[in-house]
Specification:
227 residues, alpha+beta, two-stranded antiparallel sheet, 5 helices, 11 strands, 21% helix
Length: 227
């Protein structure tokens, strides 16, 4: 006959980490013979590693911390990201403004550039070669911002018609007046022929892809008019 003994052990490995509680069935036999009959005794063995209470508490807290960190970095990362507030992006024409523009007919120039005036402004338009001070918000066709002077906190100085900026923006500024805001629908050949790489948190622009620019002409140095 064989008897079954139950063994329960808790051990600590050399690095101080708790090992899982091991439970197994051990088979052993005791074979003293009396009068030719085999006698078997059931033996129950229990071994416990001796770990002092403070160290055990420290190990348990450490494992709990590691487990929590793994959960946060893994399965719950998407939920945490979704819980973060949306990024506040400054624009010249918000969602309500863009919706109102849907009913406005675009003006198409011979080059293929299209635009819609949001605010007309007043005063003279900049002649070719004149410097202007303007704000801009550059977007993909689905209005995702990839560049903006508003986020840089400083308007942009542009010499109109001098090739300092992309052709579509150069041409779109020519008919504007100070104080005006215009949305430019720039075809690929007038935009970024080589495309733009994605910046942090910003979309990329594929080569020769159409782009949308909202432009605000602030003033034209040397052409201010007295009111």
């Amino acid at each position: 006959f064989n008897s079954v003994s139950s063994v329960h052990c808790i051990a600590v490995n050399p690095r101080g980490q708790d090992m899982a509680l091991a439970s197994q069935k051990a088979f052993c036999s005791s074979r003293p013979r009396t009068g030719g009959r085999a006698r078997t005794n059931a033996v129950r063995v229990r071994c416990d590693a001796q770990v002092d209470a403070p160290r055990r508490n420290f190990l348990q807290q450490s494992l709990a911390f590691v487990a929590s960190a793994a959960v946060l970095a893994g399965s719950h990362s998407g939920a945490l990201a979704a819980a973060l507030p949306p990024q506040d992006i400054k624009v010249l024409c918000d969602a309500e403004c863009s919706a109102a523009l849907e009913s406005v007919e675009a003006i198409t120039l011979p080059s293929g550039l299209k635009y819609k005036d949001i605010i007309l402004g007043s005063g003279p338009s900049p002649p070719v070669g004149f410097q202007v001070v303007a704000n801009y918000v550059a977007m993909t066709p689905n209005l995702r911002v990839f560049d903006s002077s508003l986020e840089k906190g400083k308007p942009y100085d542009i010499r109109v018609g001098a090739g300092q900026v992309i052709k579509g923006l150069d041409e779109g500024l020519l008919g504007m007046k100070p104080g005006g805001i215009r949305r430019l629908y720039i075809p690929g050949e007038l935009g970024f022929p080589k495309g733009l790489k994605a910046g942090p948190g910003r979309p990329s622009v594929p080569p020769a892809s159409p782009v949308v620019f909202d432009v605000q002409l602030l003033y034209i140095p040397g052409l201010e008019t007295d009111e």
